[in-house]
Amino acid sequence: MMQGLIDQFAAVLGNQYVLTEDQEKAPYLTDWRKRFTGKALAVLLPKTTKEVASIVKLCASNNIAIIPQGGHTGFCGGATPDNTGKQVILNLKRMNQIREIDVANQTITLEAGCILQAVQEKVAAQDLLFPLSLGAEGSCMIGGNLATNAGGTNVLRYGNTRDLCLGLEVVTAQGDIWNGMKGLRKDNTGYDLRDLFIGSEGTLGIITAAVMKLYPMPISQWTTLVATDNIAATIALLNLFQKRANSLLTGFEMMTQESLALNEKHFPQMANPLKGNPPFTILIELSDHESEEHVRQLLEVILEEAFAGNLISDAVIASNLSQANSFWHMREHITLAQAQEGANLKNDITIPLSSLDRFINETDAMMRASFPGVRIINFGHLGDGNLHYNIAAPLGTDPKIFNQNNEKAIYELVYTQVERCQGSISAEHGIGQLKLDDLRAHKGVVAHELMKTIKKALDPQNILNPHKVVSI
Ligand code: FAD
Ligand code: 2HG
Ligand code: ZN
Question: Are 162 and 128 in contact (CB under 8 A)?
Fold first, then answer.
């Protein structure tokens, strides 16, 4: 039966786009963190929305589960199949056409397999900005960004991927094509289907194309690193920038001493330019549409006020683009430094800004008391209240064994604290298979039941990414 089905896939896609040999399938079976590995009947590489629809119909009539996949950079194992070898991976990388850039409407219409960085570069050539930006932008894809509602470093000013999306094209679990490709900023016609599919991590439909917002490219960007002693001062600094710079503030990222020490261990060329390893290093970016002079002066005035108010103890303003890039590289390499160091426990959480100080002080103290020697690699998009509160094993211990023995207790500690502060256990990375049980435990019974009702209504056969996000 399986060979017959593979032949039918090949009849739709062409032989070379149905991968069945172990060697060809291998690159699609393990996630970026190497935390999840699965098996697949085949890896399917469609080129058109119609092909996707035909494949879904074939899978539905044969009761075969489909794992949608983009760049496979997600952190929660959402794009990795299970171990049965009966699921198929539907990787959308061949669907990488930009259908239209509409300058007057400030939108781009594009297919799900477009690589994020390629999109940024394409619109930049027309002096336009696609503001979604994250460390994986060289390999993650728009479909994956939409399916995970990715965040990144520009959320403070432009919002999450959800906020950047105006229209979607989706293949449903029945193999129908929903054309919701309107580039409208207002459309109150009943239930918002677009927002239902965004962030659903491939469990409700397969996103094949989208209409996304564009913005005018700023004339000038200024980037600075500043040192702060504590989170209370850091929040006061953020509020000062919000008050003085308002919408010109496009980045406000935090890195602790411990996370930058790990960075420097693995990437010595990325030493912190601030003197004396401050407790907190904050990367701030302002983007301006007036002039370079205007934004530089504004930055200097705000920094003077911050020094005068004892909010910061040191500051380095990037003097050119390459120095600004080096600040960003330092920030983005923390994830890579952690990967080099070995297995770690990721916590992608949001806390209301007014509770961040309490959360970090209390949780740090509890963590160090309960797990002596543990390294708290805490960094993130502080302007959004989003911490990557990652935990690394004490030096000299085997990270895999440490994680095995302590993972449950560490997550329980962090999530209890998150609940106490009315935060979220997943800020931007999603749920996938990693946090399936955590979602059930923390979403609230009514919300969780509603999510299951939606899943059952849209995918009653449970063939789209089963046992990810919610199990039915
Ligand atoms: P994949 O990993 O392939 O898939 C992710 C999920 O979406 C899976 O559940 C999959 O089934 C589903 N999916 C994929 N494509 C489709 C589709 N077309 N239709 C329906 N479902 C689909 N994330 C952030 O939010 N912010 C960050 O700052 C950030 N930084 C990162 C830095 C690094 C170095 C790395 C490795 C990852 C980072 N991520 C970040 C996580 C990741 O890059 C994002 O989640 C990204 O949006 C995933 O895109 P992808 O194409 O790789 O999706
Ligand atoms: C980032 O902000 C990413 O750099 C990765 O979301 C976070 O490594 C992490 O935990
Ligand atoms: Zn992040």
Answer: no
Ligand 2 nearest atom to the CA of residue 348, by list position: 10
Distance CA 443, CA 259 (A): 30
Residue 192 has a pLDDT of 96
- Please give the number of the atom of ligand 2 that sits closest to the Cα of 136: 3
With a cut of 80, say whether residue 1 has pLDDT above it: no
Q: Strand order of the sheet with strand 18-19?
A: 18-19, 42-44, 88-91, 66-69
Long-range own/partner contacts, residues 13-16 (CB < 8 A, 24 or more apart): 13/44, 13/45, 13/46, 13/47, 13/51, 13/55
Strand partners, 44: 18, 90
Ligand 2, residue 335: give the atom nearest the CA.
Answer: 8
What confidence tier does 212 reach under pLDDT thresholds 50, 70, 90? very high
Q: Hey, whose CA ends up nearest to atom 8 of ligand 2?
A: 335
| pLDDT for position 7 | 98
Residue nearest to atom 6 of ligand 2 (CA): 152
Ligand 1 pocket test, pick from 31, 133, 134 with the greatest ligand atom count within 8 Å of Cβ, gives 134
Q: What backbone phi and psi angles, to 5 degrees, belong to 57?
A: -60, -45
Nearest CA to ligand 1 atom 25: 150
Q: What angle do CA 195, 197, 199 make, to 5 degrees?
A: 85
The tokens describing 180, both together, are 């919701």
Ligand 2 centroid distance, CA of 380 (Å)? 7
* Pocket lining: 135 vs ligand 2, CB cutoff 6 Å: yes
Rounded to an integer, what distance in angstroms lies between the CA atom of residue 420 and that of residue 415?
Answer: 8
Q: What is the Å distance from ligand 1's center to 139 Cα? A: 9
pLDDT in tens, 425-464: 999 999 999 999 999 999 999 999 999 999 999 999 999 9
Q: What pLDDT does 463 receive?
A: 98
